[in-house]
Design goal:
Elements lengths: L1 E4 L5 E4 L2 E4 L3 H12 L4 E5 L5 H6 L1 H19 L14 H15 L5 H6 L3 E4 L3 E4 L2 E4 L2 E3 L3 E4 L3 E3 L27 E5 L3 H12 L3 E5 L11 H14 L2 E3 L4 E7 L2 E6 L4 E4 L1 E4 L3 E3 L13 E2 L2 E4 L10 E3 L4 E3 L7 H17 L12 E3 L4 E6 L2 H8 L3 E6 L4 H5 L6 E6 L5 E8 L2 H4 L1 H8 L4 H6 L9 H16 L1 H12 L2
Helix pairs in contact: 1-8, 3-4, 3-6
Bound molecules: flavin-adenine dinucleotide and nicotinamide-adenine-dinucleotide.
Nicotinamide-adenine-dinucleotide binds next to α6 and β23.
Length: 484
């Protein structure tokens, strides 16, 4: 990395790659590029690890893990074990959540990246022209830039919201005391995961969703399994909730619905979606275009300034879509292939799984039934209930089912699994879709008995069932019988 001074007298770095943002996307690009001996500058203005480590995936899954122990203790009686009602020490749960972040943090740390040979700058990055970024008093003129600036909570313009204290994912994991009544606005992934976790931890929870149903992105039949579980855990789920305003109240906050109903809670969590970070980076000075979906990129993840890529949650245009850590990592891999090896890449081709970590989990990949009908017309639906899986029975985890959508010739268009370990069980379906395998390939594998994975086999075997009724097949079987 050549180092001299720019016209303003700032130290000038000239690396191959300059990465803005050290979240899931930026860290992946920087680590892979450095491993190939490429000179990299990585700039982070806040905490290394970004949202996923500090205020997203990691704390949410740590909190959920704690909450699921309450459920296990409650259900232990069904196995003949008298555990009694759990005693929840919220301060220790908070310590567990923060301890989990601290345990993972060294992997994403400045020290680790410096040891890899990455030049880490702790400061806010801003483009000054089409070729230059400035951060912490240094100028960086890189061959390629990667913007991985992430997203932030999108707060809706509900009257009165700016007059009351409210939580978002950026603050909810800092709660040390157990809330009395948590009102959650938004029934997407964040809303349902947090609503169920807090409910299991003994908090009264009301979940307000404006739409007709929870988890609008998911197949309604599968989202319904999660909806049912939340209600049976005691979450007051209110879909079609139209919020008129939010008022301060003695208890904390009051959400007033259109029609006048007033829901008072001690805490309010706003989980109404995300918006890409595009401001404060001088994008205009660098000729980088944005739109409401984020930094506009093409299918190769390149921005209107061709030396710049945008990846992860901040990517818009052809890069917009599901905002997940594994998508951010996938984008990072594409940029490496294109920027380092000049290979053509195309975002949006690979099947992307998504998992909502409720109990039961909801995992899916590919098309929903409705999307498949619209695009392909004739399709077949294959289902298998966990109630008919022996391992699920032994573990008393019989809620939910597998639902696969296939063409009449057995091409897999999508799969959705609501049930225990759904996030793990979706992977063979992802592999099959990525590699163009047919559902009969999944049916033909040998599955260990008794495993939850057998639900995949059972669903796949459903595809073959009509052939047992085929008169020609039956005639052939009877002929073979006669031959002895
Ligand atoms: C509550 C919650 C739970 C989630 N759970 C999951 C899950 O279970 N699984 C999953 O796959 N995904 C989950 N997600 C989504 C996941 O967190 C994001 O998709 C992922 O963090 C995106 O990574 P990123 O690198 O694009 O952005 P981020 O992680 O947001 O990182 C961007 C970084 O850029 C930095 N930055 C921004 N501007 C500048 C600048 N000008 N200069 C320097 N630095 C800058 C920011 O400080 C930040 O550190 C969850 C999200 C939330 C909110
Ligand atoms: N398990 C996971 O992978 C996971 C977990 C959490 C978050 N995430 C990521 O974070 C993203 C953001 O999650 P999210 O749940 O905040 O957003 P979301 O977009 O998934 O859901 C937001 C919900 O809020 C509702 N809403 C919006 N305004 C409202 C209002 N005024 N009143 C009532 N309801 C309103 C919307 O109808 C929608 O259902 C997800 O899309 C996902 O990419 C992933």
């Amino acid at each position: 990395m050549v180092s001299r001074a720019d016209q303003e007298g700032r130290p000038l770095l000239q690396p191959d790659l300059c990465v803005i943002g050290a979240g899931s996307a930026g860290l992946s690009v920087a680590a892979i590029a450095a491993s190939f001996g490429v000179s990299v500058v990585l700039i982070e203005k806040n905490r290394m690890g970004g949202d996923c480590l500090n205020v997203g995936c990691v704390p949410s899954k740590a909190l959920i893990a704690a909450a699921l122990h309450v459920r296990s203790m409650r259900e232990a009686g069904d196995f003949g074990i008298g555990a009694g009602e759990a005693v929840v020490d919220f301060a220790r749960i908070h310590a567990h959540v923060k301890g989990t972040i601290a345990a993972i943090a060294p992997v994403d740390s400045v020290a680790r990246y410096r040891a890899m040979g990455v030049r880490v700058i702790e400061g806010e990055a801003r483009f000054t022209d089409a070729h230059t970024v400035v951060a912490a008093g240094q100028a960086i003129r890189a061959r390629r830039f990667v913007i991985a600036a992430g997203s932030r909570p999108a707060v809706p313009p509900i009257p009165g919201l700016d007059q009351v204290p409210y939580l978002t994912n950026e603050t909810v994991f800092d709660l040390v005391d157990r809330p009395g009544h948590l009102v959650v606005i938004g029934g997407g992934a964040v809303g349902v995961e947090m609503a169920q976790a807090y409910r299991l931890l003994g908090v009264q929870v009301t979940l307000l969703e404006a739409g007709e149903r929870l988890l609008a992105q998911e197949d309604p039949e599968m989202a319904h399994v999660v909806d049912r579980a939340l209600r049976s855990d005691g979450v007051a789920v209110r879909t079609g909730a139209s919020i008129d305003r939010v008022d301060p109240a003695e208890a904390g906050v009051a959400v007033v619905l259109r029609g006048g109903e007033r829901i008072e809670g001690s805490h309010l969590l706003v989980a109404t979606g995300r918006k890409p970070v595009v401001d404060g980076m001088g994008l205009e000075a660098a000729g980088i275009e944005t739109d409401p979906s984020g930094i506009r990129v093409d299918h190769g993840l390149r921005a209107s300034n061709r030396r710049v890529y945008a990846i992860g949650d901040c990517a818009g245009g052809a890069g917009a879509g599901a905002r997940f850590t594994h998508v951010a990592n996938h984008h990072a891999g594409l940029v490496i292939r294109n920027a380092l090896f000049r290979l053509p890449v195309r975002v949006g081709k690979a099947p992307i799984p998504h998992v909502t970590y409720t109990a039961p989990e909801l995992a899916s990949v590919g098309l929903t039934e409705a999307q498949a009908r619209e695009r392909h017309g004739a399709i077949r639906i294959l289902r298998w209930a966990f109630a008919d899986n022996d391992r699920a029975r032994t573990e008393r985890q019989t809620e939910g089912h597998v639902k696969a959508v296939v063409t009449p010739r057995g091409r897999i268009l999508g799969c959705s699994i609501a049930g225990a370990h759904a996030g793990e069980l979706i992977m063979p379906w992802v592999l099959a879709m990525s590699r163009g395998l047919k559902v009969s390939d999944l049916a033909g594998l040998i599955y260990a008995y008794p495993t939850f994975s057998e639900a995949t086999k059972s669903a796949a075997v459903e595809f073959l069932r009509p052939s047992a009724q085929n008169p020609w097949v039956r005639r052939l079987v009877s002929l073979m019988r006669r031959l002895g």
